[in-house]
Amino acid sequence: MNRCTRAILYKDNLKYNLQAIRKYVEEPTKLCLAVKADAYGHNAVLASKIAQEIGIDYLAIATVDEGIELRNAGIKANLLLLSLAIPQEFSEIFEYGITPLIFGEDYIKVFIDAAKNYFKSPKKYPVFLPIDSGMGRIGAYPQEAGSQAKLISDSEYLKLQGMITHFCVSDSISPENQEFTKVQFQRFKEAVENVKAQNINPGILSCGASAALLNNTDMHFDMVRPGIIAYGYYPDQVTKEYLKSKNKDFDIKPVMALETQVVAIRHFKKGQSISYGRTYICQEDTDIAVLPIGYADGLLRRFSPGLEVTINGKNYPVRGRICMDQCMVEIGKDNKDVKLFDKVLIFGPKESGANQTAEALAKLGNTISYEIFTSLSKRVERVIF
Ligand SMILES: *Cc1c(COP(=O)(O)O)cnc(C)c1O
Asked: Residue 10 in contact with residue 349, Cβ under 8 Å?
């Protein structure tokens, strides 16, 4: 593939970030790296291999197919499936050694039957019990945890390997939200007590994703589940500066750069319009660089107006609507700094030559960096650097 619109993955930065996480989270706390959604668009196989080198305990996936891809690539680490599978996928869970979340009486019973069918003779297959401590998504309520853990542990086919919960506002620094995270933590502990009261070992306990990992160090329990920080971005309001104000030191580097090239330089007259909808009218005679990147690559239409890109160290504004496969950038009349086929950086770490990170695009699109990465489509080749 020779297409110039591509994502460069700085693997040394990924390693740097994982090492930073390992240093920040003291042993023996386990690490579970979220590599779901192709490692947030950063190549799950690459991320998993580097994570294995660092000695990570679990890799978190969202679908059974993601797990199969990793197993086929030779990944041996424990795979924790964070979303619920359907019965048609259960035999693949067993075949590929994926650790699922199961909860809810009916669901657990169907899962036990599937395990019986698959293994024929008793086998303590590991599963995690998720707890809904306030996220409002999946999981048993704390008061149901004891009976559901019992259902799991009474089965000859299953073993309760651990319990997890997920915080919904731990990436916010407002006092109310920080208070809610504490309430969630308390409810999770209550769920764990309910399981222990049944004489069942609750196994590995885990609640924090990136934000709580950084900000709520008292909530690490046995395992934390970082995602976004491994890829070099802070979770919303829990930033480097905020952590510093709390005497916590944590440094990471963006892993991905998105780049393209100038494929045409056009001369426009004052009053000429650019792109669909004629939303931009040239204010004077000017030159426009055309880039072969558009919303089908993940450069969202709503980034314009506002988006700037970097060419040879300088920023230039995108003009008019971003099209499916192309967009236009104003470089100004007779600009000697921009030539045909010059490289263009949309975002990336400093060493890529970009002047901005994906955080700038997230702000423009009124979203979070996570969505910028997962929006990059498959025709954007990921190149490991
Ligand atoms: C995605 C996810 C994570 C990782 O979240 P980050 O904010 O990227 O660190 C952890 N736990 C669960 C349950 C998740 O869904």
From this structure: yes
pLDDT digits (tens, 9 = 90+) for 252-274: 999 999 999 999 999 999 999 99
Report the chain's mean pLDDT, rounded to a whole number. Answer: 97
Residues ≥6 apart with Cβ < 8 Å to 12: none
Question: Where do we find the tokens 């999981």?
Answer: 139
Identify which of 24, 82, 101, 228 to mutate to test ligand 1's pocket (most ligand atoms within 8 A of the CB): 82
- 3-state SS, 160-218, equals EEEEEECCCCCCCCCHHHHHHHHHHHHHHHHHHHHHHCCCCCCCEEECCCHHHHHHCHH
| Pocket lining: 42 vs ligand 1, CB cutoff 6 Å | no
State whether the beta carbon of 235 lies less than 6 angstroms from ligand 1: yes
Q: What are phi and psi of 347, to 5 degrees?
A: -160, 165
Cα 312 to ligand 1 centroid, rounded to whole Å: 36
> Which are the catalytic amino acids?
36, 276
Task: Give the Å distance between the CA of 278 and the centre of ligand 1.
Answer: 41
Residue 310: C-alpha distances to residues 214, 262, 281, 315 (Å): 32, 11, 22, 4
Residue 210 Cα to ligand 1 middle (Å): 7
pLDDT at 1: 86
Q: Which amino acid is at 349?
A: P
Look at the pTM and tell me if it is higher than 0.85: yes
Query: Residue 331: which of 348, 349, 346, 314 has the closest Cα?
Result: 314
As a whole-number percent, the residues of the chain with pLDDT over 70 amount to 100
Q: List beta partners, residue 131.
A: 140, 165
Cβ of 209 less than 6 Å from ligand 1? yes
Check if the beta carbon of residue 265 is closer than 8 Å to that of residue 287: yes
Q: Which amino acid is at 120?
A: K
Q: In the predicted model, is pLDDT for residue 211 greater than 90?
A: yes
Polymer length of the chain: 385
